Structure formats: C-alpha cells, structure tokens
Amino acid sequence: MTESRLADLTARVPGLRLLTELTDLIHYGRDWTRRWGPAPLAVALPSDAAEVQAIVRWANERQVALVPSGGRTGLSGGAVAARGELVLSLQRMNRVLGFDATDRLLEVEAGITLHAVHEAAREHGLLYPVDFGARGSCTIGGNVATNAGGIRVVRHGTTREWIAGLTVVAGNGELLELNRGLVKNSSGYDLRQLMIGSEGTLGVVVGAQLKLTDPSPPAQTMLLALPHMDALMEVFGLFRSRLKLQAFEFFTDVALKHVLAHGAQRAIDASEPYYVVAEYDALEDRDEQAALLAFEEGVREGWISDGVIAQNEAQAAALWRLREGITESLAPRKPYKNDIALRISAMPAFLHEMQALLARAYPQMEVVWFGHIGDGNLHINVLPPEDMAQAEFLAHCERVTRLLADALQRHGGSISAEHGIGLVKRAYLDSTRSAAEIALMRGVRTVFDPHGILNPGKLFE
C-alpha cells in the first residue's frame, strides 16, 4: 500500500476496499485456466458504479491496466492479471436493484451470481433461463462479457437474448445506460449488443436489466446410450421432430469414466462410446408416449442401444450430474481445452474430420469431449500425460489447435463458442474473423478505450 499509485487511488476514492496480500493477489489474479502466474498490482473491490468510474479515470491518468473480474470461472484466460494490472472485482456489487412486474425485468448489479438471479426470478414466479454448471460462482457481468450459453441454449438461446439493458463504465470513465430495457429501439447502433461478448475490452459492466419469462413446463430427463458417432445427429433430429426439447447434451465413454470416478453413479448398464442427456417437456401423458415412441424408433434404426427415464427429481439430478460433473472431474488434471462452434448442419461432416484429426494428433493422450450438440457447441479436453512437461504439452496442443482452427474455418465454424477468446485463443481469431473484421474490432476498441487500459492483451494484442 506504500506504492505511490495505490496511495493516490485510495486518496481519490475514499473508503475503497483495496487488497494487496499475496493470497488475495493469487486468488483474484487468475481464472480457471491456471496457465499464467497471477501478478496483479492490487485488487480493487468497488461498492458502486461511481467508484468504478473513479477507478477507471484514475487508471487512465496513471496508465494502469485494469482487468475486470467476476466469478473468474472463465476458461480462456480472460480474467487473468499477470502483468501488474489492477484487478477490478465486482464482487461487492451483487445486489438485486429492482423488479418490474409489467415489463418482467429484473435489474441487478454485475457481481450477482447466476444462481442468485435464478432464485430472485423464482421469487416472482418467473424464470431466467440461462443456466450451466458454474451457476453458483459465475456472475452476470462475466456472463455478459462472454455471452455465456450453457445447457439450455437449444430452447432459450444465449445470454444475448436475455439482456434488455446494460449499465457500463466505458474505458474513458463515462457511464453509459444502454437500451434502458426497451423492446423496440431503432435509434442508431445497439451498443448494448456490442458490449455482450466483448470480454471487458470496451467497458466494465456494472449493471444489467434481465428479461424474465414463464417457468419451463414440467420436464422429463432421459439418458441414452448410442453405439456410434453418426447416431448423435440422427437421434437429435428424431427427438427434435417428436418432442419439445429443453436440452440435448452428449458426452463420450471417456468423459463418463472420469465423472464416475469423481463420485457420480452409473445409471445405465450399456457400455457404449456415446451418451446423451435429453430433457423435454412432459405436460401430458401423450408427451411421455411420444418420447417412448421416439426411443423405440431410435432402437429399431440402430441409433440407440439402451436408455433410462428419470422417475423423480433426484434421479433426474443424478442423470444431469453425469453431464454437468465432467468439467469438475477433469480439473485436477489441468486439461487443455477447446470450445468450438458450428452450424448444426455442418456438424456430421466436421465430427468425422475432427475425430480423425484428434486420433492422429493425440495417439498417446486421453481426449475427453462432450457438449451441447443441440446448438453445435463441442468441448474438447486433452489430458496431459503424467510424464510430459507442461511446456511441452501446451506447445503440442497449440499446434493441434491451429489444425483444428483451420478445419473449423473450412466448415464455417468458430474457435470459441461460449468461453471467449481471452489469452488462450487469440492466436486463432483469424480462423473465425476476417482481417477486415479484426481491423474494425480494433477500431471499436480504441473508441471505447482510447488509452488501452481495459483488459489489454485479451482478444487480440
């Protein structure tokens, strides 16, 4: 705290909570990637938007880089502070500010967790439908920054569809009220949408107006065992045509092995290379009958070898744990992660090319893949061999990622579906965006952050 810049900051923002202990610097200076050693200058925890503005203005004057920080559950290095940046944590700004029953809008501060938003919506008999495994620790600000998706995108879409308005402190310290909850607003550029997915490089999200909707109908959960890869898309097409899907998630036998070792319970006798967790509306008996008929047709076609339907909420939760517990079960191994997206129509051809590429590239490494097949999003996790140095492992994986990025480019896909670009994927941005697009993105960034203080090095150099 004797550092002159920090002394100046505390003088500028009386009462600002500022952390400088080593344990705090380590905790707040990294995200789930764990690939970069955290080395922030300090951690600022503002209590309101005015303090955020004051911090941003001070950072501009002092030329101190800022790293906006939410729950730090990201997997792209987007919340890493490894070069002496000031971490700007929104942790204390976690309140529900209001609810408008007419417009069905929930106004919140950016540091509120996704789980707390779910609970607040439930108190009003409504639903905020974006959902994924990190719901207890991820924050709305971080969800906005990466346009988070999750397990029910097939039904409800990504975060982008549920943001009615944003309050943002731009890189020059200006407070922006974007869209203000309007349904129709054709008064020029929609800067709200520009902020969504910008990874903290244009502004610091300090508040959001969230759209709420009616609770989902009663749902049923089914676990399916599939004998081959082509069956994934066949079963998805079959179920989508017969049922009102809320989610359609898949994982491999390798993923199942790890999540079972982590404490999940086996729910099906069949041992197959692929598995699907499907959730669908179950309002009436005819919905259950339609599900059984779809299952039977899948069996007759040779796409499904076995399946089980949850008989109660506890069993449904146990089936979902097989899918949602995968990331946590792999975390101790520090996997190298890819998060990719394609149009669903391009998925069958790409899956075959990807499977052949991974087999050639990682003949002696364990590759775990799973994802949101219903919206074209795959997660690929490569586990390092115990006898391979971390630097060698990462270098090998980076070479393979370039090949994967090239394949995605041929198939019209994206190197990042929902994790963002951050530090991890910035070298491959050109596989998804043209040179002209990247130039425009750089120009936009300069307009909002003229001195380059917001999350420098993330998205692109």
From TrEMBL:
Keyword Manganese assigned: no
Family annotation (InterPro entries): FAD-bd_oxidored_4_C, FAD-bd_PCMH, FAD-bd_PCMH-like_sf, FAD-bd_PCMH_sub2, FAD-linked_Oxase-like_C, FAD-oxidored/transferase_4, Oxid_FAD_bind_N, Vanillyl_alc_oxidase_C-sub2
GO biological process, one term: respiratory electron transport chain
Keywords: FAD, Flavoprotein, Oxidoreductase
Required cofactor(s): FAD
GO MF assignments: FAD binding; oxidoreductase activity
Domain FAD-binding PCMH-type positions: 36-215
UniProt family annotation: Belongs to the FAD-binding oxidoreductase/transferase type 4 family.
The protein's name in its UniProt record: FAD/FMN-containing dehydrogenase
